[in-house]
Structure formats: C-alpha cells, structure tokens
Write a structure and sequence with these properties.
heterotrimer, A alpha/beta (335), B mainly alpha (264), C mainly alpha (270), B: 264 residues, mainly alpha, 13 helices, C: 270 residues, globular, binds adenosine-5'-triphosphate, binds magnesium ion
C-alpha cells in the first residue's frame, strides 16, 4: 500500500497585479487586477514505504507548492492527495504527527531560544516519550555533531548549523515520512555530505520515506533511486534515476587522441566539434544520439586521421538534467 | 483531557517566553513602561477635563474611571495572550512563517497565540485593576461575593469580546497579508467604550451594543455595579461573548483554508 | 556654487517625492487610517459636547472654540507622529547605517527631506477629514489668508523642531533593540504633550509648563491655535522666535548625539 498517493493534483494561485506609477496605485485603490496562475497542474504519482524520491525541476516549477499540499499546509484547488490514507489538509493534525518537514529557505524553530529549548518544546508538542527522546537526541548529536550547538540560539547559528538543527527538529519525533524542500541549499561540501549520510541512515534504519526537492544533483545521485521531474506544474518524468541517463542523454561526447595535429575533417550529420585546446593532440566531438551512433562517428573519424586512442564519456546527470530542463525531453518523449 | 494537554503545553511555551524576556531585560522594562505611559496620557486627559466640570452628563469622574478601568482590564487580557494576532500578517503570513504552525500536531491558532505571550499587557492589566479598585472605593461600591463574581464574569466576557473581534478581523491577513488595518478599524471603536454610552447619539450606542459590542465590556457592567438602570443588558455580556467566540472561530477556520503560503 | 546647491536640492526633492507613492501602495492602510480617524473625531466631538453640557465657557474657551481646536488638532495630529525611530531601528539592526552614510547626500538632510515629504502628504491626505469635520462636526476654518500664511510657517518650523527631536531620540536605537516599545513611548508622550488630546489652557499650570518645555507643542498646539483662532495672528513673530530657538538648540544637540551614537556602530563593526 502506497504511503503517498496523488491524483490529478492542481493548485491555482490568485495574485493582485500592481501597475507601476502613481496612476496604477490610484487605480488599484479602487479596482485591483487579479491574475491566476496554475502552480501545480494535474500531477499524479504514488510513493511506496521506504522510498527516497527526488522531486526536481526548474525554479518556479511547482515543487514547493506540491510539498505544501502533501503536508497539509495548502488546500488543493483540485485533485486528491492521500498520505497514509488520510487527507492531509482535512486531517492536518493527525497527519502532522506522522510527518517531518524541513524548508531549507526558512526556519521552523524559535529564533531566540537556545536550540535545546526549542527541541524540548517540540518534544512536548509531539508528546515524545522522555526516555526515547533522550536516546534519540544522543544518537542525533553523534550523527550530526550537534554537541556544541545545543546551547546556541538559532538566531546566532550559521547556515550549516541551522540546517542540522532543522533536520534534528524535523526528525526527532520519528516521522514515517519526511519532506525536505532544498535541505542542502547554500551548504558547504562537508555539511552536505553529513546531511546526506544522515538522511540515508534514517531511511535505512527506520524505513522512513523521504520526499526531497533540490537543485543539487549530488543529493539526487547520492540518495535517490527514483526521480520525478516537474516542469510548469506538470510531471514530465517519473522513473528510476538510471533510466534518465540512458534514455535522455541525447548528446554525448567522444574524445580522440590523435597522432598528429587534427586537420579539418568532414563530419557526419549530427556531430559537432566541442571547444578544445589546439595544443593538445585531442579531438573532442559532441554528437546527437538520435541522429547517429558512437561507432559511426568513430569510424568516420578514423577513416580521415590517425587515432591513438579514443574514449566515450558517460553522460553525467547534470548535463542530462540541463537538457531536460531546456526542453530536450519534450521532443524525445514517445507519445 | 485535550484541554489539560493544551494547558500543560501553554505552560511550556510561557516558560520559554520568560527565558527570552529575561534575556532582554531592558526591552522588558521599556515594553512595560510604554503601555503605562500610553495609559497615563489618556487618563491625564480625562482628569484634566473632568476637574473643570462637575460631571459628564450626570457621570462623575470616579464613575467614568470605573468604566475606563473595566475596558482597560478587559482589553489587557487579549493583549497578553493574543497579541500575536496583530503581527500575524506581517510576521507570519507575509513571510510564510505560518507554515510551521500547520505542520505541527496541535491547533494552529493555539500555536500562534502561545508562541508569544505579550508582557506589555501586564502593565495594562495593572492599570485597569488599580482603576477599578480605586474608583469603586471612591463611589462606595459595597463588594459582596456576588458582585465580585459578577465583576470577574464581566471582565472575562469583555476580554472574550475583544479577542473574538480581533480574531475575526485578523483573518483578513489570509487574503491580503496584512490584518492590522482591518483589525485596527474595528478595534479602535473601543475608544467609544471608555465613556458612558449615554453621551453619544442613539446610533453610536446601538452600534456599540449590538454590532461591535464593546459596551458589554465596560459600560453595562459599570451600570450594574453602580446600581444605575440599564435593563437586562448588564446580563447579556457572557452570551454575547460566547456567540461572538463561536462565530469568530468559524471565520478563522474559513480564513485558514485560504492560506496561500508564499512562493519559494 | 548655486548649481551645486541646486543639484543637492533636486536629490532631496526626489527622496521627498517618493513618499506619496509609498502611501498609495498601502491602500488598505489609507482606508483604515481614514476610518479610525473619523471614529476618534466622533468620540471627541461627543465627549466635548458632554463636557460643555452645563453651558458657559471653560477656562475662557467656548464650546465652539474648543471643538474647533480639538478637531483640528486631531486631524493634524500626524504632524507629531514619526516613523523615524522605527526606520533608524531597522537601519541599525540590519547594519545598513554604514551604507546610508556613504551616500553622497548628508544623512540628516536627506531624512529631513523625507520627513517633510511625509508631513506634506499627511496634510494633503487629511483634506477629506477636514471636509467631514466641517460638514458633520461644525468645524470652522478661517477665511483670512494672513492666518493661513502664518499657519503654514508655524507648521513648517514646528515640523523641523519635532524632526530634530526625533533625530536625537532615534539615537537611542543604537543602544537597545526594543525599538517598538520606544516608539510607543514616544507616541504616547507626544500625543498628550503636543496638545492633541486637550487644549493646553485646560491643564493645571504645572502640566502646561511641562508641555511648553517639550518640543511637541511647537508642532501641533502652536499652529493649531493660530488656525482655530485661539491665538491671534499678531502673536506670530513671538511664536516664530521661540520655534527658531528650539530649532537651533535641537539642531546642535541632535548632531552631537548622532555623532556619539554612530561611533558605537563603527566600533562594533556594524
Ligand atoms: N503563495 C503564492 N502566491 C502566489 N503565487 C505563488 C505562491 N506560491 C507559489 N506561487 C507561484 O507558483 C509557482 C510555483 O512555485 P513553487 O514555489 O512551487 O516553485 P518551486 O518549484 O518550489 O521553485 P524553486 O525551485 O524556486 O523553489 C511559481 O510561479 C510561483 O510564483
Ligand atoms: Mg521551492
């Protein structure tokens, strides 16, 4: 039985448009202009227990809005959400007991309170058993290296410290599902690594379901086996991470080490020379997989010049995702 | 059971709040002083004027102080416990900070109110209490247990009326990100209730009795305590308060459904 | 030289010109302010009518005079309100004071221009209230243009007095974070001692003396007395001299205070 079930989910926002200048302001005084935007538009997916799902897309694609509907913060305009069999908006309090949320962009803790006081308050709000609470606190302190932070108020923490504090606060009640909206935004490599390790550990140890949005594909590669890509409020891909690379790596690069300097050669259609250093005895070619194949390119080149060695680069995730964001996927998707 | 849990939780919130307040001790003092000064300014005004005339349409200075004290007392209670409603728009809704109240397993309204106990209200409470005590002694009210219970009920009903009106109007923040203007418009009507309603034309006293019923927070209980005729109106405070509370909570729930959070 | 002053003035005028736009941006606040003020006018109107219910003059003022004074004082009371402590508080808290000081316009002059913009807009915004007060609450405005001229000058001078005081007062935000409380404190004191709530004539002598020792009356009681006819036009030179004395004194003090307070920021590194 899936833990999250989403069918035809949509959210529309109405906003007042402001016209510039005094005339606009005076007009708005009497008749404001209303504009409607669909942030999420007919989304459908399910998440099974224990999955770690990466939910990615460009800025403004609708990721945070989806998370807000899944957590019960927003009421959907249309469609259905079920989290652990409940409607998260209608049964918000019951739902809240089972979930943990981190919004990387804003704090959920008390600004002026020492971190430990915030945690104590949270333990009371979630009615965590005091024994279990102490046990978990110890465990989290070890994993996230919180020892020195407990007495520090949130307002004087650095970004990385704050994020570790937020994660602790969101997971201390052992939720069955965690929603992480950009949990690694603005963090250094070490802290990122630590946070990823922590999330993976929680997922493995407790079978916590993780729903994660991020702009850092490192998070995705390290954590997620499944990826959902959303664009302009619609889902454009939902499947295993590995498939994206195989299926949608439309452009690949092939590098030849040549015996002599590469003279101008004629290339088959769909192949371009990538920028390269003329001193190196190297020829780097970028080709479109839908128009030609690696072997065709290789034989075409070898017919014309002396090749010592050649290598075919695996498409890396970030370039693939960039292509998808740029619209390559839309042309590629079979109807 | 549930109420007990919320009481315990409130205590926890309060404890933390005092820790913060103690950290900023100077701010604590300035906050308390500021409300005292505001009160002093309006009291001085009444005093300055009332020493020139024997009475205000038959109401003596002390009687007016009783009305004034009652309204101050009633108002100070939501000032202490519900001040976050004022800042809700700017501080929580515009910034999206309201989200966190919605992902916790407690009533979001409770969470919002408990998040900040406002110590400034303490000053007002004291001023109100002193005014009621002094003025009732001056006009020679003979306190019986019954009158004491009546007084407490009247103050609580008055507080509930203030709170309900504030809650109802602060809901506007869910649409326009800002509730202070709307709340202020309704809330400021309580200035009328600082004086005997009889000095106003019928329209105003009707408005303050049946539409924005601040009259039940000050004038009608004062009439009763002073033994002035006011019909059954001095008894309607608790009912009015209960109805308003119920309505305002519905309005709040309605507004909550329109919470749109923020982009990002 | 003249050109330099001219460009300076142009820069300051640009700052002042932004204020009305900001006001209109907050349309609900405009409506709210309007209604809240009408309520206050109503309360004051009936309150003072009840005070005079016994008939006769009180302290040499007739009902009509007192009402005229009080309504005008209420309408013009924004003249003694100021957001300067709040703004300064924000600048200090967010560490933007340093940036502000780097701009090629004198910091204080720039804020003076802005505050003048605020006051001018405030007065214009009050026009509907003035009309309502005239129609519903029997307020009378003078027809003698000399009165209006004297009024304009006293408002202008009085506004400078309060601005300089606020500048001095705002320096406190360098030392505390509780700006809101400070601001409430100041507004409360200003409301009473400026004569916005009750004419100074009504006060016992000791209170009146305190009022005159504070700057707020210069910006409200003095101009409103002229406009409502309580003070004769022939008094003007004397009133102006007093106002100018205030300006000189506070001008020196405010610059000194600010110089001391700003050092706190530079020492702490902002
Ligand atoms: N409260 C709101 N009111 C109006 N419009 C909104 C609101 N929240 C989001 N939007 C709009 O909905 C769209 C989706 O926003 P959302 O925050 O879900 O994007 P996102 O995928 O999280 O982007 P990012 O990567 O930048 O965080 C955007 O066009 C945004 O402007
Ligand atoms: Mg987002």
């Amino acid at each position: 039985m899936p833990v999250i079930e989403v069918v035809n989910l949509s959210k529309k926002f109405r906003t007042n448009r402001k016209e510039p200048g005094i005339a606009g302001a005076v007009k708005a005084l009497f008749r404001p202009v209303v504009q409607e935007t669909a942030a999420v538009d007919g989304v459908r997916f399910t998440v099974e227990p224990g999955e770690v799902v990466g939910y990615i897309g460009v800025n403004g694609a609708g990721k945070s809005t989806t998370i807000k509907m899944l957590t019960g913060i927003l009421e959907p305009t249309a469609g259905m959400v079920r989290v652990l069999g409940r409607d998260p908006h209608r049964q918000r309090v019951d739902n809240a007991r089972e979930i943990g949320v981190v919004f990387g962009q804003r704090s959920q803790l008390w600004w002026d309170l020492a971190f430990i006081e915030s945690l104590n308050l949270i333990s009371k709000i979630y009615e965590i058993d005091p024994g279990r609470y102490r046990e978990l606190l110890d465990q989290f302190c070890g994993m996230l290296d919180l020892g020195d932070l407990l007495r520090v108020p949130i307002r004087s923490m650095s970004l990385g410290q704050k994020m570790r504090a937020e994660l602790t606060a969101a997971l201390i009640h052992e939720p069955r599902i965690v929603y992480l909206d950009e949990p690694t935004i603005g963090l250094d490599l070490i802290v990122k690594e630590r946070i990823r390790e922590f999330i993976r550990e929680q997922n493995k140890r407790n079978g916590t379901t993780v729903f994660l949005t991020t702009h850092d594909l490192g998070d995705i590669e390290k954590l997620c086996r499944r990826v959902i890509i959303i664009d302009a409020g619609r889902i454009i891909y939902d499947g295993p991470l590995t498939t994206i690379q195989e299926r949608f790596g439309r452009y690949r690069t092939i590098t030849f080490e040549t015996a002599g300097f590469a003279a101008t050669i004629s290339l088959p259609p769909g192949v371009e020379t990538a920028p390269q250093n003329p001193e190196d005895r190297k020829l780097i070619l970028k080709f479109d997989r839908t128009k030609t194949t690696a072997s065709k390119v290789a034989s075409a080149v070898m017919d014309q010049i002396d090749v010592v060695d050649f290598s075919l680069a695996e498409p890396d995730l970030s370039s693939v995702v960039r292509q998808i964001y740029n619209g390559a996927l839309k042309e590629n998707v079979p109807p | 059971m549930r109420i007990l849990r919320y009481c315990r939780l409130y205590r926890e919130f309060l404890l933390q709040r005092f820790k913060i307040l103690m950290e900023y001790r100077i701010n604590f003092l300035i906050g308390a002083a500021s409300t005292l000064v505001l009160q002093a300014a309006s009291l001085l005004t009444v005093w300055v004027v009332m020493r020139q005339v024997p009475n205000l349409k038959g109401w003596t200075f002390d009687e007016i102080l009783l009305i004034y004290g009652l309204v101050t007392l009633a108002r100070s209670i939501p000032h202490m416990f519900a001040d976050n409603l004022w800042t809700m728009g700017g501080q929580y809704i515009r910034t999206g900070g309201f989200d966190r109240f919605l992902v916790r397993p407690i009533n979001p309204l409770f969470h919002l109110l408990a998040d900040r106990f406002c110590h400034d209200g303490l000053g007002n409470f004291l001023v109100g209490a002193v005014l009621v005590a002094k003025s009732s002694a001056a006009v020679g009210i003979h306190w019986t247990p019954f009158l004491a219970v009546y007084l407490i009920a009247a103050v609580i009903s008055g507080a509930a009326i203030f709170f309900a009106l504030q809650l109802m109007t602060s809901v506007s923040a869910f649409w326009i990100m800002e509730s202070v203007p709307v709340t202020q418009m309704v809330f400021n009507l309580h200035e009328f209730a600082r004086y005997p309603l009889t000095i106003y034309p019928k329209v105003v006293s009707t408005l303050l009795t049946w539409v924005i019923p601040f009259g039940f927070a000050s004038f009608y209980p004062a009439c009763f305590l002073l033994g002035r005729p006011a019909g059954i109106l001095p008894w309607l405070g608790p009912i009015t308060a209960a109805i308003l509370l119920a309505v305002s909570y519905r309005v709040w729930l309605f507004g909550l459904r329109h919470y749109a959070s923020t982009g990002s | 030289m003249i050109r330099r002053i001219w460009t300076k003035m142009r820069a300051l005028a640009a700052f002042a010109g932004m204020i009305p736009k900001l006001f209109l941006a907050y349309r609900l606040w405009v409506w709210m302010d309007f209604f809240v003020r009408i309520f206050s006018l109503t309360v004051f109107y009936y309150f003072w009518n009840a005070v005079y219910a016994g008939g006769g003059d009180i302290r040499g003022l007739s009902l009509a005079q007192t009402l005229n004074y009080i309504l005008l004082a209420q309408i013009l009371s924004p003249l003694v309100q100021s957001r300067l402590p709040m703004v300064m508080g924000r600048l200090v808290r967010e560490g933007d004071v340093g940036i502000e000081l780097l701009r090629p316009v004198d910091f204080q002059s720039r804020w003076y221009a802005e505050c003048m913009g605020v006051s001018a807009t405030m007065i214009v915004i009050q026009i509907p209230l003035v009309i309502i007060a005239c129609v519903c609450f029997e307020m009378h405005l003078p027809s003698d243009p000399r009165v209006w001229a004297v009024f304009a000058v006293t408002v202008w001078l009085g506004q400078a007095v309060v601005f300089l005081f606020d500048w001095m007062f705002s320096c406190l935000v360098f030392y505390t974070t509780e700006v809101w409380g400070l601001w409430v404190l100041r507004e409360g004191v200003a409301a009473f001692f400026s004569g916005a709530l009750v004419p100074l004539q009504f006060m016992p002598e000791w209170l009146e003396r305190i009022c005159r020792a504070m700057p707020f009356a210069q910006a409200l009681y003095v101009p409103v007395s002229i406009l409502s006819g309580i003070a004769p036009v022939s008094d003007a030179p004397r009133l102006w001299l007093i106002q100018i004395a205030w300006i000189v004194g506070l001008g020196i003090l405010s610059r000194t205070f600010f110089g001391v307070a700003i050092r706190k920021v530079t020492v702490q590194g902002g």
